Amino acid sequence: MSDFPHLLAPLDLGFTTLKNRVIMGSMHTGLEEARGGFDKLTAFYRQRAEGGVGLIITGGIAPSLRGRLTPSGAQLSFFWQKQRHRKLTQAVHEAGGKIALQILHAGRYAFHPFAEAPTAGKAPIGRFDARAMSGRRIRRCITDFAQTAALAQQAGYDGVEIMGSEGYLINQFLCPRTNNRDDDWGGSSANRRRLALEIVRAVRGRVGQHFIVIFRLSMLDLVEHGSTLEEVITLGLALEQAGVTLINTGIGWHEARIPTIATSVPRAAFSWITERVKKELSVPVVATNRINTPEVAESILASGQADLVCLARPFLADAGFVAKAEAGTPERINTCIACNQACLDQVFQGQRATCLVNPFACYETELVSRPAARPKWLAVVGAGPAGLAFACTAAERGHRVTLFEQRPEIGGQFNFALRIPGKAEFAETLRYFRYRLNAAGVTLRLNTQATVDMLAGFDDVILASGVRPRMPDIDGMDHHSVVSYSRVLSGEVTPGGRVAIIGAGGIGVDMAQFLVAAEEPLLQDWLAQWGIDRAYQEPGALMLPHLPKAARQVWLLQRKPGEPGRGQGKTTGWIHKAGLRQYGVHLWGGIRYSHIDDDGLHIRRNGESECLAVDHIVLCAGQESERGLLAVLEQAGMTVHLIGGAEVAAELDARRAIRSGTMLALRL
Length: 668
Hints:
Layout: E1 11-12, E2 17-18, E3 22-24, H1 37-50, E4 55-61, H2 82-94, E5 99-103, E6 116-117, E7 131-132, H3 135-154, E8 159-164, H4 169-174, H5 189-192, H6 194-207, E9 212-220, H7 229-242, E10 246-251, H8 271-278, E11 285-287, H9 294-302, E12 308-311, H10 314-317, H11 321-326, H12 344-348, E13 377-381, H13 385-396, E14 400-404, H14 414-417, H15 426-440, E15 443-445, H16 452-455, E16 460-463, E17 467-469, E18 482-484, H17 485-489, E19 498-502, H18 506-516, H19 523-529, E20 553-557, H20 573-582, E21 586-588, E22 592-597, E23 600-605, E24 608-612, E25 616-619, E26 623-625, H21 630-635, E27 640-642, H22 654-667
Parallel strand pairs: 3-4, 3-12, 4-5, 5-8, 6-7, 8-9, 9-10, 10-11, 11-12, 13-14, 13-16, 14-15, 16-27, 18-25, 19-20, 19-25, 20-21
Antiparallel strand pairs: 1-2, 17-26, 22-23, 23-24
Helix pairs in contact: 1-2, 3-6, 6-7, 13-15, 13-22, 18-20
């Protein structure tokens, strides 16, 4: 019997059947607009279809020029645009899958001067003032959605998803926050939901009854002046009558100041609202957000919270997610850690998406692992992310690999990261690498300090020895109160109640979180901390946040002027800063360090001298490459390659480390 009977059960939609309850959610990859991008996108979706997913939903495609997210954003409005989509749908069907096109009108979130919205104005995250839509423009928009759906059907898609959440155009019409109209499209709840219903009716009228129509319904807006629970349910019931096949869950507007998909968000943190809405509806309802393992998905379905689950980034991390669950080997799944570093952060910078834990994602036609032409004996020194990625990939290609690690466990800096509250997912990556090492036949030698003599018989040596903390030049650095971040995170040192952190990059921010948050919060505590009301008493489901109690008093310091925390990931940096403020962390920039003595850390701030009377001073002031073996190996005439932190000791970057290890393994 399957370990995941609910997850793998087919779903009969009347006119068609989904082979399981897993939907690959919409993700914009950046390939949609790139030259030759559709060929790469076709390979990307083909792999996911081969991996067993029941239904794929594409990244958002605009129904009009005004609806594009960016000036060059993807659009499907004309017959001549269908051809490249046919190639994509054919590939998915050949692989045994189904695929739906997401139709997305950006509204005031558009990054171009032709933005339009129900009411004129600029979004908090926007650059352009949107123009208020006339009645004629609204009617044209409805026609545009229907035309795009018809073209999608002609291009071979099995359905469409109408994007009605996350603060895009339809969502903007639904909420008083962005709809101040006094005509038939604004004012009352009935008028505000009119656009959503007219679009669905028009789409259903064009595509007929034997075509999947999904509506992504914003069940929690998480912004002021959002929808009420009654309005959400009323719209859901009306959407059923209008002819939708499925209702997908949307959580939060992009401008909401509440995290919804970052790694610090508890798994399945929002399935409770899907369950609540599902009780009122008869069409199948889909749960979303932070569902990254088959175990979590199965639990949601088995408990009746939803009829299907929608996973997006987990299919970047592992195209074979469903097939591995079906085979009863979930330990083989490369789990999404919800870091956003290589996917969303990349896309928002106009770059192609990929995945921190899976560099092959969106590079399926460019990064291809083939058997090695001449297998070699390879030694890898260091079992951090770079060394692990290299060892596994090289061994899978046929090389004979021995991995040396001086510590008693693999993981390197990942072992520090997973100790940070909100980053426990990093343990999943190490579990995955342990499986791969064993399956690929890598010889693993833990508790072993590699020497020149040990490495002498190998064809090539790969130095993945990582980094060591950089020691800043401050008088008194030898004081007993001064400790490195590695000593704290390893458990060697337990800091006192008052701590100053020197360095406010990614490590400094993580260290501050580690020092103030005693443990991973339970779901109810996390919801309360961010002001999410499960009782849904106010529009948008907001309430006053319940600020957590800090385990310590912490100062996060940096030399650079301005508040610490800038330069972090676009989609997660604000979350880290907001979380630290909740704990009362002092975020100070423009600091000049004088000296350290028994009284504490002496600094100059805003032109004034002061002393922070702290128990400990934690150094997070950057890293230096650990290359102790390099010179002696080269003197011995060995062929040496540097990867990861040993190659570049910038801010700790697991994405770069894993990618550099993988790329070298593909070249040798």
